Amino acid sequence: MSNMTAPATASEWITRLADEPDNATLRQAHDAWLMSSADNRADWEETLQVWQMLDMTVPVHGAEWAHRVRENTPQQDRISPAGRLAQAPRANTPGGTVSAKSRGGHSWRKAGFASGAVAAFMALALLVVLPGLMDRFEADYITGTAEMRVIDLPDGSVVHLGPESSVAIDFDAGRHITLLNGEAFFDVKPDSNRPFVVAAKETRTTVLGTAFNVRSDAAGVDVAVEHGHVRVDGSGVATPRDLRAGDAVHVMADGQTVTRKMSPALVASWRNGQLIAKDQAFADMVETVDRYHSGWVVVTDDRLAETSLTGFYDLTDPLAALQAMADAQGAEIQQVSPWMVLISPK
User: Fold this and answer.
1) What is the pLDDT of residues 107-142, one digit of tens each?
2) Cα dist. 297→107, 132, 141, 259, 294 in Å?
3) Which CATH fold would you assign to the domain 271-345?
4) Cα torsion 216, 309, 129, 140: sign
5) pLDDT at 117
6) Quick one: which of 82, 130, 121 has its CA closest to 102?
7) Scanning 4, 95, 127, 163, which has the fewest C-beta atoms within 10 Å of its C-beta?
């Protein structure tokens, strides 16, 4: 191999093999990595399956190895990504208001870096702390960095609240949830007489019974459906959209919408510590990882922030995920303090 660092995870291997399909030395190193550990082989097969769900081109070498790995993996150990999501344990967290951590659950697009460390730090602190204080007054539930909660609602519906997120709940005259910030997955109990409504900014998602994910950040609002049927509309939506299983829509700040298809098994994969992206803005993916990181992550270049990213990343190790994302874009990361990481073009 070249002087480049050898890949350490299956997602890194598949990216390198796709970039260098004819590199015999790389293939030999990959063979050795696979043979060295049953965990590596299981990680590789799962990553291949996720890659195929994303409709990405799997390296020919990878396809060959998928067959060979399956031949040497007991049937009972073969679990698809969808199966892993279904088997994931539910968090043993009682309902109740969660006090915000110092970052207050706020998140924003971090593109650009002000000159002067003190000025930058003060500006970032103001952007983070003040909106977080507002969340405390409005929210019924708030999560901190890397914290996830399962909330049982009075009607039997369940909310999975992502890190650095906040929601307000109103069941007095219907079933109304306001996602103030961040991301949440909703598993809704059917009730034809009481529609379940989730508001995020000026976007409203209405359902009778379904499971879906809503994300709200500076770039807009995203809704994706695991199963069932939802309607996305509101004063901030130029064209209302009806979504079914595997449908997703991005509502931009100007109200315009972009729809796409995805595997239902990949909806809200963050619940199991996975970030799966297909043609997503680099800054948006960095922002997602930052919800699992105790400090600030800043993308210092606008062009880098706007590049498109596809990949499969481990949210349980945010710094490793950031490094893998930066490597994929030809960028580098620099940890300037225990509380700040910069991502810049090389």
Assistant:
1) 333 333 333 444 555 555 445 544 555 566 789 999
2) 11, 17, 24, 28, 9
3) Phage tail protein beta-alpha-beta fold (3.55.50)
4) positive
5) 47
6) 130
7) 4
pLDDT at 100 over 60: no
Question: CA-to-CA distance for 190 and 209, rounded, in angstroms?
Answer: 4
Could you tell me the two tokens for 285?
């993916």
pLDDT value of residue 134 = 58
The 10 Å Cβ neighbour count of residue 32 is 11
Token representation of residue 53: 């769900």
Whole-number Cα distances in Å, 151 to 148, 184, 185: 10, 10, 10
Q: Please give the C-alpha separations between residue 326 and each of 15, 310, 330, 336, in angstroms, as whole numbers.
A: 13, 12, 6, 16
> Is residue 93 over pLDDT 90?
no
**Type of residue at 74:** P
CATH of domain 117-268: 2.60.120.1440
Same topology between domain 117-268 and domain 271-345: no
Residue holding tokens 């088997």? 87
Q: What angle do CA 163, 164, 169 make, to 5 degrees?
A: 95
Q: Which two tokens stand for residue 166?
A: 């906040």
Query: Is this prediction's pTM over 0.85?
Result: no
Q: With a cut of 60, say whether residue 191 has pLDDT above it.
A: yes
Amino acid letter, residue 71: E
Contacts of 178 (CB under 8 A, 6+ apart): 138, 167, 168, 169, 170, 198, 199, 200
Residues of the chain with pLDDT > 70, as a percent, come to 72
- Asked whether residue 335 carries a pLDDT value surpassing 60, the answer given is yes
Mean pLDDT over each residue of the chain, to the nearest integer = 78
The 3-state secondary structure of 87-137, one letter per residue: HCCCCCCCCCCCCCCCCCCCCCCCECCCCCHHHHHHHHHHHHHHHHHHHHH
Identity of residue 246: G
Distance, in Å, from the CA atom of 320 to the CA atom of 325, rounded to the nearest integer, reads 9
Enumerate the domain spans of the chain: 10-78, 117-268, 271-345
